[in-house]
């Protein structure tokens, strides 16, 4: 949660790597690959 441009609360959900079953943290970096094309197309319209 952000208030007045300051982070007040952050929580991570899920498992970023199914093979090792390690829980996600707020510092987890996800590889999104080609999914950015979907975002770009959606925002462009």
What are the salient characteristics of this protein?
45 residues, two-stranded antiparallel sheet, 9% strand
How would you explain this protein's 3D organization?
- By secondary structure, the protein is of the alpha+beta class.
- The chain has one helix spanning 35-44, and strands at 2-3, 6-7.
- It contains one helix and two strands, in the order ββα.
- Strands 1-2 form a two-stranded antiparallel sheet.
- Strand 1 and strand 2 form a beta hairpin.
- The two termini are 29 Å apart.
Classification by helices and strands: alpha+beta
Question: How widely separated are the two ends?
Answer: 29 Å
Total number of beta strands? 2
- Strand portion, in percent? 5-15%
Strand count, sense and closure of the main sheet?
Answer: 2 strands, antiparallel
Instruction: Work out the helix count.
Output: 1
Identify the overall geometry.
flat
The H-and-E topology, N to C, reads as EEH
* Number of separate domains: 1
Strand order of the largest sheet: 1-2
- The overall pLDDT, averaged over residues, is 83
Helical amount among residues, as a percent range?
A: 10-25%
Q: Runs with pLDDT <50, length 5+?
A: none
Roughly how many Å is the radius of gyration?
A: 15 Å
């Amino acid at each position: 949660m952000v208030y007045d441009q300051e982070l007040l609360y952050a929580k991570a959900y899920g498992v970023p790597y199914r093979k090792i079953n390690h829980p996600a943290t707020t510092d987890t970096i996800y590889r999104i690959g080609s999914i950015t094309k979907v975002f770009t197309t959606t925002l462009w319209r």
